[in-house]
Model the fold of this input.
Amino acid sequence: MATMTMAKALNAALADAMLDDERVVVFGEDVGQLGGVFRITDGLQARFGDKRCFDTPLAEAGIVGFAVGLAMSGLRPVVEMQFDAFAYPAFEQIASHVAKLRNRTRGALSVPIVIRVPYAGGIGGVEHHCDSSEAYYAHTPGLKVVTPATVEDAYSLLREAIDDPDPVVFMEPKKLYFASAEAELPARTAPFGTAVVRRPGTDATLVAYGPAVPVALEAAEAAREEGWDLEVVDVRSIVPFDDATVTASVRRTGRCVVIQEAQGFAGVGAEIAARVQERCFHALHAPVLRVSGLDIPYPAPMLEHTHLPSVDRVLDTVARLQWDDQPDTRWVAA
Amino acid sequence: MTTTPQAVRRASPRTRRPATPAAPDPSAGLLPHTEPVRLLDPDGTPLPARDDYPEPPVEELREMYRRMVVGRRFDVQATALTKQGRLAVYPSSRGQEACQVGGVLALRDTDWVFPTYRESMALTARGIDPVEVLTLLRGDWHCGYDPAAAHTAPQCTPLATQCVHAAGLAYGESYQGRDTVALAFIGDGATSEGDFHEGVNFAAVFKAPVVYFVQNNKYAISVPLSRQTAAPSLAYKGVGYGVPSEQVDGNDPVAVLAVLTRAVAHARAGQGPFLVEAHTYRMEPHTNADDQTRYRDAEEVEAWRDRDPIARLEAYLRNRGALDDAAVAAIAEEAEAYAAALRDRMNAQPAVDPLSLFDHVYAEPTPQLVEQREQVRAELAAAGDEEGDA
Done:
């Protein structure tokens, strides 16, 4: 075991994948000599050469479209979008080609591309650097969408993404890049399509992913003082989604709060809340509630703390789970 | 170059100083000729031979003629199939036969083609089964042929996006030691899309062996070229990316094949991408669903009939003694048979399987897709039971 950051684990995953499979090529903006603005590709060009890890023109649609062509030629491209919002120029390539080529060709062509997207906020970033864009990808059939919340998961999910026969949008929570934990690499944690119970509890289930997982864990710890024993489920794999683990947890606890950092309307949390309600209705003692970012464009750094789901906001929401069997007055018409 | 008196006067002071050699013009060799390359007059009369674009061998031109005749007959048949309800829609490329056939004839079988939805004729000319080519427009699936086997990407509907795929594929092939060339078809309108520019730029930066082949047929549905660009020619777009470019009379089959042959050789030799603009004309509406009377005059269309690429090549080959009445009749007969076989096969209702909708979303269906497949299976079974009861 060693203490390391998520950034280091991601770097190790890329290096190990490049070592194991010479078809793996890593490219994007500033990923070569600089090692990426977050240093996730640090040292890869020096170690593997500038054919395996290289900078491209500054054009995201070009980067993803180029990856499509490289994948068609038999390579395994791993591309970096420098920031969440900078990936939007690539959206047509992602939605119309990356996601659909297998389907359009009845499986004759597949494009096993990994698109790494540093996402979400909490780092004091200026505008266009802090978007939570996962719902756009999760809403696009043909893409897999995963997001780690722990150091070992970062390594394992990225290795699995590179090995996967389908395109994967790999969402990296920026604010967790430099959080450290004990980890032993090469780690192989639970596979895609598996949610994990990070903290067992009996009274309610907090379902979270990516940057919201530490918030959920902290809230669960704080809730002990209120007398609530909360379970925390880390979704990890948004697509494919693990209904079974989430459903089993909520059936046990009878209450559920879904937490995401992204704006709430039409988001991944809305999908999870709907799925839980469809599957657990008779086990629920209260409506499924959500804690999310506000339905606003990502705010300026000095205001982001109001936007981001906080431990207090999670606890306030848990308090509304009808513990006294009374309707939530918030929704009662005046 | 002629020397003007002014140039002489300006040059004279230099003679008193040590001469500084002029820096070579870095754009030399990148700009196209100011006039489109042409090797045949519209009536088929050969123009003086040129060193930069040698005439292709006559056997190749004969084969080009054959594929153009069959291609046009295919195109007419496909348009007819829309009227019979056998195709949802068909974007014709009639009038563009020299480009459609030249674009694939210049390639090896192992080279890759990146077509748009208007390249049905090019793909049949490449030897892909016409029923598979028309799958997209028939509507029983999206892409009917196997792109890996045909070395042909699915026909691309989102404009210009294939330009970047071609750059990636070509670079990936050379990266793995293969001398594959990729040819991307694109129309005049799509040169306004960002992906055209990103594709050409990526290909140039990575020296990817790609030929970008712009068929300038003068209209993007209804919007004329003047609304796409203020450039003197679409081939001038190459110089900004360091890509050598040429413009060619797209209704001169000999010139089209000559220019593309050189462009492909340039790419295959490891010199990077090449951009070709072919000046041609779409003789039919954008698709069968389009009303071209709203944006162009019949006289304009009629004027282009005098520049028909098939008549032009036929006249030339007849004059050279490479084609006679019997050969022309045999090719026409072959084209009729091709169209008749296509018509017969397209008249059969294709079988579609609703459960196949779930097969190729991912390599393995997600649990959610498995659930939905079961739901559809149950719906189909229930519908079948009802039919059985009735």
Q: What stands out?
A: Residues 6-20 of chain A form the longest helix (15 residues).
